[in-house]
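Consider the subject:
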Amino acid sequence: MTDAISQYGRLSQSDPSLRSALDKLGKKSGETAADRPAESAPPARADTLQLSKVAEKAMTEPDFDRQKVESIKQAIAEGQYPLDAKRIAESFVAIERMIRD
């Protein structure tokens, strides 16, 4: 099997002297792969995030007119919101042209 990053398997197959040197290193240490403990993941750390004052302000203050949104919601619920089918269709055509080009 070849490790895609280090090419260890490919090198050891093409160069027998490299394979024997690697085997000697393993024998000198007296341990085999079975003797080595499985690598454990590093302990989990809690990530922290610090926001700047500008970011905090941007997240707390909406950048839209809440009163206008509520009035539109109410008009839709009451069936009073005017819809212009021609204008909606023209908007869809314009979006399609932007996508195509």
Helices lie at 8-14, 16-29, 53-60, 66-77, 85-100. DSSP finds five helices and no strands in the chain.
